Amino acid sequence: MAIVSFTIVVGSGADVRGEIFHLSSGGTVEGTLLNPDQSPRVTYEVQTNKGKLVLGRTTVRDVVAFSEQLRQYETFLPRMPDTIEGQFQMARWCDQNNLPEKRDYHYNEILKREPNNVDARKALGYEKFQGKWIIREDWNRQQGYVRYGGTWRYPQDIKMSEQESAIEEKQVEWRKQVRIWRSWLKRGGDKAQEAATEFRKINDVYAGLALIELLEDEKLPAVKELIVDALTNIKTPESTMALTELAANDPDESIRDRATIGLESRDNRRAVNYLITQLRSSENETVNRAALVLGRLKNPASIMPLIDALVTTHKETIQSGGQPGRTTAGFGTGGGGMSFGQPKAQVIERDVQNQGVRRALLEVIEDNVDFQFNESAWKVWYANKKIPLNVDLRRDD
User: Fold this and answer.
1) Share of the chain above pLDDT 70, in %
2) What class, spelled out in words, does domain 8-66 have in CATH?
3) How far is CA 347 from CA 8, 311, 312, 313, 318, in A?
4) Cβ-proximal residues to 251 (8 Å cutoff; 6+ apart), any chain
5) Before 40, cis peptide (omega within 30)?
6) For a FRET experiment, which of 52, 131, 164, 385 has its CA 20 to 30 Å from that of 74?
7) Is there a contact between 200 and 226 (Cβ–Cβ < 8 Å)?
8) Please, where in the chain does CATH 2.30.30.100 lie?
9) Rounded CA gap, 276 and 280, in Å?
10) pTM given for the model
Protein backbone atom coordinates (compact mmCIF):
# COMPACT_ATOMS: atom_id res chain seq x y z
CA MET A 1 0.00 0.00 0.00
CA ALA A 2 1.44 3.44 -0.98
CA ILE A 3 2.32 5.97 1.74
CA VAL A 4 0.74 9.42 1.34
CA SER A 5 0.23 12.39 3.65
CA PHE A 6 -3.02 13.54 5.16
CA THR A 7 -4.29 16.62 7.02
CA ILE A 8 -6.37 16.81 10.16
CA VAL A 9 -8.00 20.17 10.86
CA VAL A 10 -9.19 20.52 14.45
CA GLY A 11 -11.91 23.09 14.97
CA SER A 12 -12.04 25.19 18.16
CA GLY A 13 -15.26 25.48 20.06
CA ALA A 14 -17.34 22.55 21.31
CA ASP A 15 -15.87 19.15 22.15
CA VAL A 16 -14.86 17.06 19.14
CA ARG A 17 -17.28 14.17 18.64
CA GLY A 18 -15.70 12.54 15.62
CA GLU A 19 -14.17 13.07 12.21
CA ILE A 20 -15.17 13.33 8.60
CA PHE A 21 -13.00 11.20 6.30
CA HIS A 22 -12.91 12.66 2.81
CA LEU A 23 -12.25 9.81 0.42
CA SER A 24 -10.09 10.06 -2.68
CA SER A 25 -13.09 8.82 -4.66
CA GLY A 26 -15.12 11.87 -3.58
CA GLY A 27 -17.32 10.35 -0.85
CA THR A 28 -17.19 10.89 2.91
CA VAL A 29 -17.33 8.68 5.98
CA GLU A 30 -18.32 9.96 9.44
CA GLY A 31 -17.02 8.31 12.56
CA THR A 32 -14.39 8.27 15.31
CA LEU A 33 -10.75 7.48 14.55
CA LEU A 34 -9.73 4.57 16.76
CA ASN A 35 -5.98 4.59 16.02
CA PRO A 36 -4.99 8.30 16.09
CA ASP A 37 -1.44 7.59 17.32
CA GLN A 38 -0.43 5.23 14.51
CA SER A 39 2.80 6.40 12.91
CA PRO A 40 3.58 6.02 10.14
CA ARG A 41 -0.03 5.97 9.04
CA VAL A 42 -1.06 2.71 7.36
CA THR A 43 -4.79 2.45 7.95
CA TYR A 44 -7.68 4.39 9.45
CA GLU A 45 -9.72 2.34 11.91
CA VAL A 46 -13.06 4.14 12.10
CA GLN A 47 -15.96 3.48 14.46
CA THR A 48 -19.14 4.42 12.62
CA ASN A 49 -22.80 4.15 13.63
CA LYS A 50 -22.95 0.88 11.68
CA GLY A 51 -19.79 -0.62 13.11
CA LYS A 52 -16.02 -0.63 12.68
CA LEU A 53 -14.54 0.23 9.30
CA VAL A 54 -10.90 -0.02 8.15
CA LEU A 55 -9.81 2.38 5.42
CA GLY A 56 -6.50 2.20 3.58
CA ARG A 57 -4.40 5.27 3.78
CA THR A 58 -4.42 5.91 0.05
CA THR A 59 -8.21 5.84 -0.02
CA VAL A 60 -8.45 8.85 2.36
CA ARG A 61 -7.75 12.34 0.99
CA ASP A 62 -7.95 14.17 4.34
CA VAL A 63 -9.53 14.01 7.77
CA VAL A 64 -11.49 16.86 9.36
CA ALA A 65 -12.33 16.92 13.04
CA PHE A 66 -16.10 17.05 13.29
CA SER A 67 -17.42 19.41 15.97
CA GLU A 68 -21.03 20.02 16.86
CA GLN A 69 -20.89 23.32 14.97
CA LEU A 70 -19.63 21.58 11.84
CA ARG A 71 -22.34 18.97 12.17
CA GLN A 72 -24.96 21.74 12.32
CA TYR A 73 -23.33 23.44 9.35
CA GLU A 74 -23.62 20.29 7.27
CA THR A 75 -27.28 20.14 8.27
CA PHE A 76 -28.00 23.80 7.43
CA LEU A 77 -26.04 23.99 4.17
CA PRO A 78 -28.53 22.08 1.92
CA ARG A 79 -31.30 24.41 3.09
CA MET A 80 -29.36 27.60 2.34
CA PRO A 81 -30.82 29.66 -0.53
CA ASP A 82 -28.21 29.90 -3.27
CA THR A 83 -28.37 33.69 -3.29
CA ILE A 84 -26.09 36.48 -2.12
CA GLU A 85 -28.26 36.97 0.96
CA GLY A 86 -28.18 33.23 1.66
CA GLN A 87 -24.39 33.24 1.42
CA PHE A 88 -24.27 36.21 3.80
CA GLN A 89 -26.47 34.41 6.34
CA MET A 90 -24.29 31.28 6.25
CA ALA A 91 -21.08 33.37 6.46
CA ARG A 92 -22.36 35.23 9.54
CA TRP A 93 -23.52 32.01 11.16
CA CYS A 94 -20.10 30.43 10.55
CA ASP A 95 -18.43 33.50 12.04
CA GLN A 96 -20.55 33.25 15.18
CA ASN A 97 -19.85 29.52 15.50
CA ASN A 98 -16.08 29.60 15.05
CA LEU A 99 -15.93 28.12 11.55
CA PRO A 100 -13.54 30.62 9.86
CA GLU A 101 -12.75 28.50 6.81
CA LYS A 102 -16.42 27.97 6.03
CA ARG A 103 -17.12 31.66 6.64
CA ASP A 104 -14.44 32.69 4.13
CA TYR A 105 -15.79 30.18 1.63
CA HIS A 106 -19.22 31.82 1.64
CA TYR A 107 -17.82 35.38 1.41
CA ASN A 108 -15.72 34.28 -1.57
CA GLU A 109 -18.83 32.81 -3.17
CA ILE A 110 -20.39 36.27 -2.88
CA LEU A 111 -17.38 37.88 -4.58
CA LYS A 112 -17.68 35.46 -7.49
CA ARG A 113 -21.04 37.06 -8.19
CA GLU A 114 -20.36 40.61 -6.97
CA PRO A 115 -16.58 41.29 -7.06
CA ASN A 116 -17.02 44.78 -5.55
CA ASN A 117 -19.32 43.80 -2.69
CA VAL A 118 -17.93 46.03 0.05
CA ASP A 119 -19.19 44.02 3.04
CA ALA A 120 -17.76 40.75 1.73
CA ARG A 121 -14.46 42.40 0.82
CA LYS A 122 -14.05 43.95 4.27
CA ALA A 123 -15.02 40.72 6.00
CA LEU A 124 -12.20 38.96 4.12
CA GLY A 125 -9.70 41.65 5.11
CA TYR A 126 -9.62 43.64 1.88
CA GLU A 127 -9.18 47.40 1.70
CA LYS A 128 -9.37 49.81 -1.21
CA PHE A 129 -5.96 51.14 -2.23
CA GLN A 130 -5.29 53.18 -5.36
CA GLY A 131 -8.57 52.02 -6.83
CA LYS A 132 -7.90 48.33 -6.23
CA TRP A 133 -8.99 45.83 -3.60
CA ILE A 134 -5.97 44.54 -1.71
CA ILE A 135 -5.23 42.52 1.38
CA ARG A 136 -2.65 44.61 3.18
CA GLU A 137 -0.43 41.71 4.23
CA ASP A 138 -0.34 40.30 0.70
CA TRP A 139 0.36 43.75 -0.75
CA ASN A 140 3.19 44.36 1.75
CA ARG A 141 4.82 41.06 0.81
CA GLN A 142 4.53 41.91 -2.89
CA GLN A 143 6.38 45.18 -2.17
CA GLY A 144 9.20 43.24 -0.54
CA TYR A 145 8.27 43.83 3.10
CA VAL A 146 8.46 41.12 5.74
CA ARG A 147 6.83 40.92 9.13
CA TYR A 148 9.34 41.60 11.90
CA GLY A 149 8.72 42.55 15.52
CA GLY A 150 5.12 43.53 14.93
CA THR A 151 5.88 45.82 11.98
CA TRP A 152 6.47 45.53 8.24
CA ARG A 153 10.06 46.23 7.24
CA TYR A 154 12.42 45.70 4.33
CA PRO A 155 14.83 42.76 4.77
CA GLN A 156 17.84 45.06 4.45
CA ASP A 157 16.49 47.25 7.27
CA ILE A 158 16.04 44.19 9.45
CA LYS A 159 19.58 43.08 8.70
CA MET A 160 20.92 46.53 9.57
CA SER A 161 18.89 46.60 12.79
CA GLU A 162 20.19 43.19 13.82
CA GLN A 163 23.74 44.28 13.07
CA GLU A 164 23.27 47.39 15.20
CA SER A 165 21.89 45.27 18.04
CA ALA A 166 24.88 42.93 17.81
CA ILE A 167 27.24 45.92 17.91
CA GLU A 168 25.46 47.35 20.95
CA GLU A 169 25.76 44.02 22.75
CA LYS A 170 29.51 43.94 22.09
CA GLN A 171 29.87 47.53 23.28
CA VAL A 172 28.00 46.73 26.48
CA GLU A 173 30.33 43.78 27.13
CA TRP A 174 33.38 45.96 26.60
CA ARG A 175 31.97 48.62 28.88
CA LYS A 176 31.71 46.05 31.67
CA GLN A 177 35.15 44.61 30.97
CA VAL A 178 37.15 47.84 30.93
CA ARG A 179 35.57 48.95 34.18
CA ILE A 180 36.55 45.65 35.77
CA TRP A 181 40.14 46.19 34.62
CA ARG A 182 40.02 49.76 35.92
CA SER A 183 39.05 48.45 39.34
CA TRP A 184 42.02 46.06 39.22
CA LEU A 185 44.34 48.99 38.55
CA LYS A 186 43.03 50.67 41.66
CA ARG A 187 43.76 47.57 43.79
CA GLY A 188 47.39 47.39 42.72
CA GLY A 189 49.62 44.30 42.84
CA ASP A 190 49.44 41.45 40.33
CA LYS A 191 45.89 42.31 39.30
CA ALA A 192 46.99 45.82 38.35
CA GLN A 193 49.79 44.42 36.18
CA GLU A 194 47.35 42.05 34.51
CA ALA A 195 44.89 44.88 33.86
CA ALA A 196 47.62 47.06 32.34
CA THR A 197 48.59 44.23 30.03
CA GLU A 198 44.99 43.72 28.97
CA PHE A 199 44.52 47.41 28.23
CA ARG A 200 47.59 47.42 25.97
CA LYS A 201 46.24 44.42 24.02
CA ILE A 202 42.88 46.01 23.17
CA ASN A 203 42.36 46.47 19.43
CA ASP A 204 38.67 45.64 19.00
CA VAL A 205 36.80 48.51 17.35
CA TYR A 206 33.78 47.78 19.54
CA ALA A 207 35.83 48.68 22.64
CA GLY A 208 36.32 52.26 21.45
CA LEU A 209 33.26 53.86 23.02
CA ALA A 210 33.85 52.09 26.34
CA LEU A 211 37.41 53.45 26.45
CA ILE A 212 36.27 56.98 25.56
CA GLU A 213 33.67 56.89 28.35
CA LEU A 214 36.29 55.64 30.79
CA LEU A 215 38.64 58.41 29.70
CA GLU A 216 36.08 61.12 30.46
CA ASP A 217 36.15 60.30 34.19
CA GLU A 218 39.84 59.44 34.52
CA LYS A 219 42.16 61.69 36.52
CA LEU A 220 45.32 59.63 36.95
CA PRO A 221 47.89 60.31 34.19
CA ALA A 222 49.25 56.75 34.28
CA VAL A 223 45.80 55.27 33.65
CA LYS A 224 45.04 57.87 30.96
CA GLU A 225 48.23 56.79 29.18
CA LEU A 226 47.00 53.19 29.13
CA ILE A 227 43.68 54.28 27.67
CA VAL A 228 45.38 56.48 25.07
CA ASP A 229 47.57 53.54 24.01
CA ALA A 230 44.47 51.36 23.65
CA LEU A 231 42.68 54.02 21.58
CA THR A 232 45.76 54.26 19.37
CA ASN A 233 45.19 50.60 18.43
CA ILE A 234 41.59 51.30 17.39
CA LYS A 235 41.18 53.02 14.03
CA THR A 236 37.69 54.51 14.15
CA PRO A 237 36.36 58.07 13.70
CA GLU A 238 35.36 58.16 17.37
CA SER A 239 38.80 57.13 18.63
CA THR A 240 40.44 59.61 16.23
CA MET A 241 38.41 62.49 17.66
CA ALA A 242 39.10 61.40 21.24
CA LEU A 243 42.84 61.40 20.54
CA THR A 244 42.59 64.75 18.74
CA GLU A 245 40.91 66.47 21.66
CA LEU A 246 43.51 65.05 24.02
CA ALA A 247 46.37 66.11 21.76
CA ALA A 248 45.07 69.67 21.56
CA ASN A 249 43.49 70.27 24.95
CA ASP A 250 44.77 67.98 27.71
CA PRO A 251 46.65 69.93 30.40
CA ASP A 252 49.27 67.17 30.70
CA GLU A 253 52.02 67.58 28.11
CA SER A 254 52.83 63.86 28.25
CA ILE A 255 49.24 62.93 27.43
CA ARG A 256 49.15 65.44 24.58
CA ASP A 257 52.35 63.96 23.13
CA ARG A 258 51.08 60.39 23.47
CA ALA A 259 47.78 61.24 21.79
CA THR A 260 49.61 62.99 18.95
CA ILE A 261 51.69 59.87 18.37
CA GLY A 262 48.41 57.97 18.06
CA LEU A 263 47.22 60.43 15.41
CA GLU A 264 50.44 60.19 13.41
CA SER A 265 49.92 56.47 12.82
CA ARG A 266 46.44 56.69 11.24
CA ASP A 267 44.33 58.46 8.66
CA ASN A 268 44.05 61.82 10.45
CA ARG A 269 42.03 63.99 8.05
CA ARG A 270 39.27 64.29 10.64
CA ALA A 271 41.84 65.44 13.21
CA VAL A 272 43.30 68.04 10.81
CA ASN A 273 39.81 69.44 10.16
CA TYR A 274 39.17 69.85 13.87
CA LEU A 275 42.59 71.36 14.62
CA ILE A 276 42.23 73.94 11.82
CA THR A 277 39.02 75.18 13.47
CA GLN A 278 40.93 75.50 16.76
CA LEU A 279 43.33 77.95 15.11
CA ARG A 280 40.46 80.46 15.21
CA SER A 281 39.95 80.09 18.95
CA SER A 282 39.69 83.20 21.13
CA GLU A 283 42.14 81.52 23.53
CA ASN A 284 45.75 82.05 22.46
CA GLU A 285 46.93 78.91 24.23
CA THR A 286 44.40 76.83 22.31
CA VAL A 287 45.64 78.27 19.01
CA ASN A 288 49.25 77.36 19.71
CA ARG A 289 48.50 73.88 21.01
CA ALA A 290 46.42 73.06 17.93
CA ALA A 291 49.19 74.39 15.70
CA LEU A 292 51.84 72.22 17.35
CA VAL A 293 49.78 69.10 16.65
CA LEU A 294 49.27 70.18 13.04
CA GLY A 295 53.03 70.58 12.75
CA ARG A 296 53.47 66.95 13.76
CA LEU A 297 50.79 65.70 11.33
CA LYS A 298 52.36 67.63 8.40
CA ASN A 299 49.22 67.80 6.28
CA PRO A 300 49.68 70.33 3.41
CA ALA A 301 46.06 71.42 3.82
CA SER A 302 47.04 73.10 7.10
CA ILE A 303 49.61 75.49 5.53
CA MET A 304 47.25 78.37 4.68
CA PRO A 305 45.33 78.13 7.97
CA LEU A 306 48.66 78.22 9.82
CA ILE A 307 49.75 81.29 7.86
CA ASP A 308 46.50 83.02 8.77
CA ALA A 309 47.09 82.16 12.45
CA LEU A 310 50.68 83.47 12.72
CA VAL A 311 49.31 86.64 14.27
CA THR A 312 45.97 86.52 16.00
CA THR A 313 43.96 89.17 17.83
CA HIS A 314 42.78 88.47 21.36
CA LYS A 315 40.84 90.48 23.90
CA GLU A 316 42.33 91.27 27.33
CA THR A 317 40.79 92.85 30.38
CA ILE A 318 42.94 95.40 32.28
CA GLN A 319 42.31 97.77 35.18
CA SER A 320 42.63 101.49 34.53
CA GLY A 321 45.14 103.38 36.63
CA GLY A 322 46.81 100.44 38.24
CA GLN A 323 47.45 96.76 38.28
CA PRO A 324 44.49 94.43 38.00
CA GLY A 325 42.77 93.88 41.31
CA ARG A 326 44.61 96.76 43.12
CA THR A 327 42.45 98.70 45.61
CA THR A 328 42.79 102.48 45.38
CA ALA A 329 42.07 105.00 48.11
CA GLY A 330 40.71 108.55 47.87
CA PHE A 331 39.40 111.32 50.14
CA GLY A 332 35.85 112.48 49.85
CA THR A 333 34.71 116.10 50.25
CA GLY A 334 32.17 115.37 52.95
CA GLY A 335 34.50 114.31 55.71
CA GLY A 336 37.81 113.04 56.71
CA GLY A 337 37.17 109.36 56.02
CA MET A 338 38.75 107.26 53.28
CA SER A 339 36.76 105.79 50.42
CA PHE A 340 37.83 102.63 48.61
CA GLY A 341 37.00 102.01 44.99
CA GLN A 342 37.82 99.55 42.20
CA PRO A 343 39.04 101.15 38.96
CA LYS A 344 36.81 100.44 36.02
CA ALA A 345 38.03 97.50 33.91
CA GLN A 346 38.83 98.00 30.25
CA VAL A 347 38.73 95.42 27.45
CA ILE A 348 41.38 95.91 24.81
CA GLU A 349 42.38 93.97 21.70
CA ARG A 350 45.98 92.93 21.24
CA ASP A 351 47.75 91.26 18.33
CA VAL A 352 49.76 88.25 19.42
CA GLN A 353 52.60 86.66 17.49
CA ASN A 354 52.17 82.89 17.91
CA GLN A 355 55.50 81.14 18.21
CA GLY A 356 53.83 77.74 18.28
CA VAL A 357 52.09 78.44 14.97
CA ARG A 358 55.37 79.55 13.36
CA ARG A 359 57.19 76.42 14.51
CA ALA A 360 54.37 74.26 13.18
CA LEU A 361 54.38 76.02 9.82
CA LEU A 362 58.14 75.46 9.44
CA GLU A 363 57.61 71.74 10.15
CA VAL A 364 54.86 71.36 7.54
CA ILE A 365 56.52 73.17 4.61
CA GLU A 366 59.28 71.51 2.63
CA ASP A 367 61.22 74.68 1.68
CA ASN A 368 63.99 76.12 3.82
CA VAL A 369 62.32 79.52 4.22
CA ASP A 370 61.17 81.56 7.19
CA PHE A 371 59.31 84.83 6.87
CA GLN A 372 58.82 85.01 10.63
CA PHE A 373 55.38 86.55 11.30
CA ASN A 374 55.04 88.38 7.98
CA GLU A 375 51.78 86.87 6.78
CA SER A 376 51.88 88.79 3.49
CA ALA A 377 55.31 87.41 2.62
CA TRP A 378 54.18 83.89 3.51
CA LYS A 379 51.14 84.21 1.26
CA VAL A 380 53.25 85.40 -1.67
CA TRP A 381 55.54 82.42 -1.16
CA TYR A 382 52.54 80.11 -0.98
CA ALA A 383 51.08 81.50 -4.21
CA ASN A 384 54.42 81.12 -6.03
CA LYS A 385 54.91 77.65 -4.62
CA LYS A 386 51.67 76.52 -6.26
CA ILE A 387 51.11 73.73 -3.76
CA PRO A 388 48.61 71.29 -5.32
CA LEU A 389 45.26 71.33 -3.62
CA ASN A 390 44.75 67.60 -4.03
CA VAL A 391 44.39 66.96 -0.34
CA ASP A 392 41.08 65.35 0.59
CA LEU A 393 40.01 66.62 3.99
CA ARG A 394 36.70 64.82 4.03
CA ARG A 395 36.12 62.90 7.21
CA ASP A 396 37.86 59.57 7.51
CA ASP A 397 34.63 57.63 8.20
Assistant:
1) 86
2) mainly beta
3) 92, 19, 16, 13, 6
4) none
5) yes
6) 52
7) yes
8) 8-66
9) 8
10) 0.58
